[in-house]
Amino acid sequence: MARGVLFTLSLAFGRSAMSAETLQAAAKAGALKPDGFQMKGKHPDLVVLSDRPWNVDTPPHLLDAPVTSTAHAFIRNNGLVPEEIDAATWTLTIDGESAVNRKVYTLDELKSNFKHYTYQLQLECGGNGRGEFSPPGKGNQWGNGAIHCCQWTGVRVKDVLAAAGIKPDAVYVAYYGKDRHISGDPKKVPISRGVPVNKALENESLLAWAMNGKDIPLIHGYPLRLVFGGWPASASGKWVNRLVIRNKVHDGPKMTHGSYMVPAQPIAPGAPAPADKDMKIIESMPVRSLISYPKTGAILQNKKTLNLRGHAWAGDLEVKEMHVSTDFGATWQLCKLEKPVNRLAWQDWSTKVTFPSAGYYEIWARATDSLGKMQPMVVPAWNPGGYLNNACHRIAVQVA
Ligand SMILES: Nc1nc2c(c(=O)[nH]1)N[C@H]1C(S)=C(S)[C@@H](COP(=O)(O)O)O[C@H]1N2
Ligand SMILES: [Mo]
């Protein structure tokens, strides 16, 4: 009996080695059940990469819907989820060297003082695809599912910043959130990142309280979070209670020491990490796509044609073309590609492929952005943090 349970646990946790202690913690939190991952409101087939902090990946076939359901959205935390949040007493403070006035708003004031907007926005972790780098990049070994494209409702960051007033010397807008440092030390901040002022002032940059039409679940940042579509999702602060308008590039935890940075000049795989002055902060994410149907491993009975579909996105840009190959990239077929529902939403694509015979095939998918840049077929520039792997997504099918 005990053996059976342990076997299931090790499967659920895939490649990540876990100590007995974290297994116990996870079991307490109710995440570990013999039948897979269990978290209220979450699909049991999500893949737990770590439980302290919570990092949970989404298999690509669970990203098939045009709008990612909350149950299927990946989870990325750097620290511990805050406890005892009271939305009625929650406040957002806006200050910083480059704020004209310090402002404090309750959630009700934010909702009543500013116009509401809803956008569908793609948020991708800077480390999505990290698991394919060799030697491995530092951090969670994400597969291809650290991306979601949900509907977010809130107020524009630019409207709130304008109410505080932005001094001409403003450079960056950064967040602080209510999550706790993994050490438990209340003085330590797990993560405090931001974006240059221009990104903060875009129409689609939101301070959101609703995800897919409902209150944001605690694990995704209840009661208030930032959403900066198209940029590393680490900029989209959860549990946000303070915005700072900075007169320099923000220097909070995870803005330095190589976090969310790549070498300014390419380095050899496994080479030591350059100093921050020789690194650049990741901004708009590169072009990428997913095959969301069928699930990899599909077996086709008595037919040689298959309808495929998925999504493609390109950071701040649009995707202009989508191709698939069933012969390892020797030939490519153009797919039908939809326009995004709004700027910074992913784009749905679909096509039908015909296989020449029975047997084993791989399907490769490749998006091209509006500037003509394509996804590479192999893992791109190695970097110490294992960021920005936008290699083509590949699935396998068997034609019986
Ligand atoms: N306060 C806070 N905000 C945060 C984080 C965090 O650890 N704390 N993680 C960031 C990172 S690295 C990512 S990829 C996204 C993940 O958002 P999600 O868990 O809602 O998918 O949240 C970002 N916002
Ligand atoms: Mo992330």
Identify the overall geometry: globular
Oligomer: single chain
Strands ordered across the widest β-sheet: 7-6-15-10-11
Q: How many β-strands, per DSSP?
A: 26
Looking at this structure, what is the CATH superfamily of the largest domain?
Answer: Oxidoreductase, molybdopterin-binding domain
- Class derived from helix and strand content: mainly beta
| Unique ligands | the ligand Nc1nc2c(c(=O)[nH]1)N[C@H]1C(S)=C(S)[C@@H](COP(=O)(O)O)O[C@H]1N2, molybdenum atom
Describe what this molecule looks like in 3D.
This protein is mostly beta strands and 400 residues long. It folds into 3 domains: 3-66, no CATH class; 91-281, Alpha-Beta Complex (Sulfite Oxidase, Chain A, domain 2); 288-399, Immunoglobulin-like (Sandwich). Helix content is 10%, strand content 33%. It has helices at residues 2-12, 20-28, 107-113, 157-164, 197-200; strands spanning 32-33, 36-37, 47-51, 54-57, 75-76, 91-95, 103-106, 116-124, 147-156, 172-177, 194-196, 206-211, 214-215, 225-227, 240-246, 261-263, 279-281, 288-293, 298-300, 305-313, 319-325, 333-334, 336-337, 347-354, 359-369, 393-399. The strands form 7 sheets. It has a 5-stranded mixed beta sheet with strand order 7-6-15-10-11. Strand 3 and strand 4 (54-57) form a beta hairpin. The radius of gyration is 21 Å and the shape is globular. Bound molecules: the ligand Nc1nc2c(c(=O)[nH]1)N[C@H]1C(S)=C(S)[C@@H](COP(=O)(O)O)O[C@H]1N2 and molybdenum atom. The site of molybdenum atom has 6 residues, from loops. Molybdenum atom (MO) binds next to loops.
